[in-house]
Amino acid sequence: MTLTCNQCSAPLPPRHPTDEAVTCHYCGTVRALPRARRPDVISALDFSSSTVPGWRTTKHATYDFGGSPPRMTARLDGDLSRSLYTILKTEGTYDEVDAAVTIRFVEGKGGTKESFHIKAGFSLRLQAGTSHCYVCTITDDGWIGVGAIDAGDGKDKWVNLVKRTRFSGLKTGWGDPNRLRFVARGDRLQVFANDQLAASLRDDRFGAGRVELLVNPAGETACVAFSDLVLKQPTGD
Fold first, then answer.
1. Which residues does residue 229 pair with via DSSP β-bridges, in sequence order?
2. Regarding the domain delimited by 39-232, which CATH topology (the fold level of the hierarchy) does it fall under?
3. Is 110 helix (H, G, I), strand (E, B) or coil?
């Protein structure tokens, strides 16, 4: 059976059996493939409803689900004194995991379309009872970075693993979809943005932990939408 695009109803292009999602060549919408076709998929959410099995929302944001294409829209406002806020987190822990999600920056500073370096992305291998984890985020103006939150001198510290840099493969228009993929396989970490390899490195400080979706609203009201969230077992590529 030929799949069609949820947004424009165009036929979707052929896909490899290991793909977790397919992108419409006409409008750019990303559609997650059904889990039944993907035995390696741990979790797949299209956010067409507020049901998020295997995950938990948090008190840090207000949420809307659904739309066309379906998405989870998270709004952060009020006293935004912290840098990173958890939007969604897994109930279970994972060692080797391939996590992918489509991110759209909807609103920025004070509810406007003004760029304010809002960040959104993943944390992997979050350690129980701590903030220690690997973090990969992209910004509303096309930057990407990878780091770790670790213990140091009695308090948490940020460690740059890949210094934040502008990445030409990222779209920077408000509402434009960017597909972020963060893969942890043993001590190897890889980041892909819109199917392009953006970073590859090795680090062994964390072996297993939870997966989270994160937003850093840069101290201002921000609204970020997530869609087609997929966790799967990493392959050998």
1. 45
2. Jelly Rolls (2.60.120)
3. helix
